[in-house]
TrEMBL record:
Residues 30-109 form the NADPH-dependent FMN reductase-like domain. It comes from Mycolicibacterium frederiksbergense. InterPro entries: Flavoprotein-like_sf (IPR029039), FMN_Rdtase-like_dom (IPR005025). SUPFAM superfamilies: Flavoproteins. It comes from the Bacteria. This is Flavodoxin family protein. GO terms for molecular function: oxidoreductase activity.
Amino acid sequence: MFEAVIAGATDPDIEGVEVVRRPALTVSPAEMLDADGYLLGSPANLGYISGALKHAFDGAYYQLLDSTRGRPFGLYLHGNEGTEGAERAVDGITAGLGWVKVADHVVISGKPGKSDLDACWNLGATVAAHLIG
């Protein structure tokens, strides 16, 4: 799923967008501030986002607040069941930050199929395209 999202975001037809990949446990608030948009991915374990993604938001939330308002984001989740809590968590955090959801969340249960990976590709491409236009 990650590779499909990245492939969409780095499509050669989308020029002028630099895609920087950072694991949630190591991304710094400064790196998050420097970004013009965000592609967020997480497993939905026990119906919630990963501890790593929650940690990234916890460590940067107040620095991002008001400074990143209006920036586009997209979300992809993978779970076996019960992803609603993870979706609600990200929706609440991003609403508080004032980020703009530019594509439907991609939520996949079980092993991703071709249509799931196509949706991930489209998510990456959509967020990247919002950065150039």
